[in-house]
């Protein structure tokens, strides 16, 4: 017998966006939060450096400056009405987290402490501004914990370790989702008036990534399969400082505290690329600079990495050269002990994975696939919009990394992801509950679980000629090599052809585990299917956009082209192929101009 | 280099009892144990089941007993423990399948200490943050690092001996709130941890402190709670 649950609002995913949505929706509507992980395992917990808000706790700052920096960071592809909304909401959002008990670090006068971050500036001086509110280098962890705790306090209904596998849409309305309970393999149908997708990103399509194993794009894939277009999927952020080969994130906060990038010849190279803010330029700018250094032979020992130097003596030396001061005007200094207190996890990662001590040694780093700017198109209330006229699909919402509002445009600024998920998670929750409270339940499909059952059957009945692990390895490699930081028509065509071949080979995969209890082999194989489709859409959208903008850098089209390409991509996944259209960018105050840091 | 991996196996749908399987595979000294488990699952036996997510020690999914002590599989490397590696589920929990245990009782204990911020006083009149000095913030810093992986609780002999013991992880959470100057429910939480299933069950074995992948000085924090129950003061 089918297991059917009824909730006003169903939230899929329990990271920062899902928990915020769940917390707000549950205040007025019967709400369930479904997650394939225990909520505290969600990838929000890996976010390190801070959450951006113009609190002005340490020095003057204004939401307008934050707005402009975000617009500029987005390379003018972000929708300015949404960016303005987010940056205006930011101070209140951060204060609200503090009121929920979040243990931010403190200034000497007891306020929330803030640190500089890439691309965040005082718009009058052009110098970096202290805007990132932080809790050591585990700000995301503290947000995740605090929101989960508040959800427990407010008795939100959790379905932990239930993996959502299908989105149910009937007569143009979302009516629920289908999920499997990992513990016993039973399928469950969640009948809902509102569905909020908050499943995070898909960095696992790339070989070197900072992203969790869980980041397989499930929410994007199930929406795409049900006819929802995806927006700006070509824009994927490569964070400049991942641990060499492993991809583990080393926060931009290291550079916020004064760390600098050094090439294989011992030179600090960022002043060549970003004369004003140098090592605190936007992430896309720095990742390209690192690759340029490597390609021109200035990597370390001819390899694909450079150094991140956070040794106190180096920090003090370069801070003096840059004229960096403390707020009271004294020269900026830092000691090894202070570094350890401000960045304990970074020190720990280096010790564990590299066997080095960043207080006395430089860290080997390379850019790592980090964040999708693209995703499920929404308006600023989290409502999913399904065409170039921003038509709302009733009952469907998205928030967090899987959504594209778009506040990040072609490149996200550091600290804006945590802000995005808190602000838009909240509004998605409020809107979803408001809608549910005046809507009737839609009709479920006759056999809601049919598509899910047949997807599983196909994976059980494959010939077994192909190994899922091999297919995943090949996909990640071609995506990282050909649809990575620098892209060209030739390379992307190779990637598309390869991913198509892999999708064919995927049909020959056979899941050997025939059991029901924690059949992780089945779910990993199912996730691989999601990633293959997403990889193809990402590559197709990247090939289609004939310009360079933000995180999308074409060697064959090196310049930004506002005449032809100042527009969002919309991509539909139809019959196993990508169909592309566009929608306009909302521009309010800031006309596009050259982007210089 | 060649690595020998001996893994605890139990599939309740097939096996009447557990057994160990040994796999030999090529690896490097910088491989995480999690990387090795992934390889075994990918190429040797797809049915091998374990939890994992972030793969760098911050999500807490892959707490396992490795060569007889608790680690996160993603935070222990071949060079740390050698090429003969035995992997088993964490102790004291019901085993569901292979390396996966039932985490529900662990989270139930966590919920018993009221693991959420409580302050029903009005917010500051300007709507801004509740002030807290860096020193006040530092007092409970260590406990905020907890990722609820259960390495500590499942290494504790008192927990093995009595299911009803709250366990070190829940006590760390209690400490995090009790010592937060902004929180107003310290006395309520102190009552909970003072019950026989709480602090009294800690016999200072120190296993938890050694097992913690986040280097939280758990025994010290529990000690601070014990002192607070005796003196009635939180400082």
Plain-language structure description:
The complex is a heterodimer of chains A (597) and B (235). Chain A has 597 residues and is α/β, with parallel strands linked by helices. Chain A has 17 helices and 22 strands. The mean pLDDT of chain A is 97. With 235 residues, chain B is an alpha+beta fold. Chain B has two domains: 100 residues, Beta-grasp domain (Ubiquitin-like (UB roll), Roll); 128 residues, Alpha-helical ferredoxin (Fumarate Reductase Iron-sulfur Protein, Chain B, domain 2, Orthogonal Bundle). Chain B has nine helices and seven strands; from the N terminus they run E-E-H-E-E-H-E-E-E-H-H-H-H-H-H-H. In chain B, helix 3 packs parallel to helix 6 and helix 6 runs antiparallel to helix 7. The longest helix of chain B has 14 residues. The model of chain B has no long low-confidence stretch (mean pLDDT 97). Classes of the chains: A alpha/beta (597), B alpha+beta (235). The interface between A and B is large, with 63 and 60 residues.
- Which stretches of chain B are low in confidence, meaning pLDDT under 50 for 5 or more residues running? none
- Helix-residue proportion of chain B: 25-40%
Number of helices of chain B: 9
Q: What is the strand tally of chain B?
A: 7
Q: Helix fraction of chain A?
A: 25-40%
Computed over alpha carbons, the radius of gyration of chain A is: 23 Å
Span between N and C termini of chain A? 61 Å
Q: List the quaternary state of the chains.
A: heterodimer
Reported by name, the CATH topology of the largest domain in chain B is Fumarate Reductase Iron-sulfur Protein, Chain B, domain 2
> What would you call the structural class of chain A?
alpha/beta
- Which CATH first-tier class of the largest domain in chain B would you pick? Mainly Alpha
Mean pLDDT score of chain A: 97
